[in-house]
Design goal:
Blueprint (H helix, E strand, L loop, with lengths): L3 E5 L5 H12 L37 H10 L4 E11 L8 H11 L19 E11 L3 E7 L4 E7 L2 E6 L4 E6 L16 H9 L6 E11 L2 E10 L6 E9 L5 E8 L7 E9 L17 E4 L7 H15 L2 E3 L6 E5 L4 E2 L2 E2 L6 H9 L1 E6 L2 E7 L4 E5 L3 E5 L3 H10 L2
Parallel strand pairs: 7-13
Antiparallel strand pairs: 1-8, 2-3, 2-12, 3-4, 4-5, 5-6, 6-7, 8-9, 9-10, 10-11, 11-12, 14-15, 15-21, 16-17, 18-19, 19-20, 20-21
């Protein structure tokens, strides 16, 4: 089906552009807690999970109207299955998940529990995964990472946030962040809805937005919203969001890189049901004999606290270089880096060796440093502890560091 014309084009008026921005600011409706990350700047990469199964014949709609449809979506109850594959261009992590978890323990981050969401982050950084999800409003959600022989679940029920690893029979418990507050460590965007909301924040005059036909996802008729940067120099090629034609809920999110090839980010429902999940879905009691770690009681050692304080001070002075898709975040880690890795890194030789394997040594007017690269986000860490990061090319980072001198 041919693409529909967008009313958000190069010649769009200021009033209309503001309407678009206002619409996408209202797009988030609920939060499903799940931990997902990539190595650089907490980037996530999710590769095509399911194929479209037909192009339904739907009434024409403009990009502005479709964005408003997403913003007005009031879906708060659902259950379903999301299939995720990851292709950030990272090397095989092998058994490094345990090394990263060990590093977090030394830094006080995981408290020694394999059930802590932060110790599960890297499992979704590579490979193919299936998530079973359920939500009932902003205070009840469950995400289960299914494996052939085990299951890991994060459950948010009222004021409680639970993590359970059936393989190790360990439980992690902490206080859930209040609704409307900033996301906690287990609340990184992972569903199509959350990813779409993040993408729509980028809709401005540096962006082309069109409706690119229709698709059928998880048995639902959907429109495809196509978001493309107008700027060169960004690593983002295009973002496609499949939006349910009836509810306005994003059903599938795909991000393809400017370099071409497989998608970097794609999260899609394979099954979805908008009926109210059973209340028992969100009940959790630690199994008999399980080791329970109370996250609120875990305290970081003084060395880790000092590193976090230094980083916090650096982030207070965070600056943004450039605009739109070429924006680069600049901040100071508060200390010199060793071999391009800033002080306050994991302290684990396996982890640090892995991070260094991702890096390319660079020099310029700024001095020297290391660029850590994925297919989406790149970060330059100078030897004196400054960081430049963004969805831009390596050359753009070096140029920004030179200009900052």
């Amino acid at each position: 089906m041919a693409p529909y014309e967008s009313d958000h084009s190069t010649n769009a008026g200021e009033a209309e552009a503001e309407d678009v921005r206002a619409g996408r600011r209202k797009a988030a409706r609920y939060v499903v807690p799940v931990a997902v990350m990539g190595v650089a700047a907490a980037t996530i990469g999710l590769v095509p999970a399911l194929a479209d199964s037909g192009d339904p014949d739907l009434p024409k709609i403009s990009a502005q109207q479709l964005i408003e449809k997403i913003a007005k979506s009031d879906v708060e109850q659902l259950s379903g299955t999301v299939k995720i594959s990851t292709d950030l261009g990272l090397p095989d992590l092998g058994g490094l998940e345990s090394s990263f978890a060990s590093g977090a323990v030394q830094g006080g981050g995981s408290g020694g529990s394999s059930a802590d969401p932060s110790s599960k982050l890297l499992e979704l950084a590579t490979g193919t995964h299936t998530l079973r999800v359920a939500a009932d409003g902003p205070d009840k959600a469950k995400v289960s990472l299914l494996d052939s022989a085990s299951e890991y679940s994060v459950i948010h029920n009222g004021t409680d946030l639970w993590g359970y690893d059936s393989k190790s029979n360990e439980v992690y418990h902490s206080t859930a962040p209040k609704s409307g507050t900033e996301k906690g460590q287990a609340d990184v965007p992972a569903t199509p809805q959350e990813l779409a909301d993040e993408a729509l924040k980028a809709v401005d005059d540096t962006t082309s937005v069109t409706v690119d036909g229709t698709a059928q996802v998880a048995g639902r008729d959907a429109y495809k919203l196509l978001i493309k940067p107008k700027q060169s120099g960004t690593t983002v090629g295009a973002i496609t969001i499949a939006v349910d034609s009836k509810t306005g809920l994003p059903l599938k999110f795909t991000l393809t890189p400017a370099s071409g090839g497989a998608a970097v980010v794609d999260a899609g429902f394979t099954k979805v049901d908008f009926s109210k999940p059973a209340a028992s879905t969100f009940d959790f009691t630690p199994p008999k004999g399980a080791k329970v770690t109370e996250g609120d009681d875990v305290k970081a050692p003084e060395s880790s606290q000092k590193s976090e304080e230094d980083l916090s001070k650096g982030l207070e002075g965070l600056k943004t270089i450039g605009e739109g898709w070429n924006a680069i975040a600049e901040f100071d880690t508060g200390g010199k880096g060793g071999a391009g890795v800033p002080s306050g890194s994991s302290g684990n030789s396996d982890v640090d060796g892995f991070l260094n394997s991702l890096g390319d040594q660079v020099t310029g007017e700024f001095g020297s440093g290391t660029v850590f690269s994925t297919r989406l986000v790149n970060a330059l860490i100078t030897d004196d502890g400054k960081v430049y990061a963004g969805a831009v090319t390596k050359d753009a980072l070096v140029k920004a560091a030179n200009a900052a001198q």
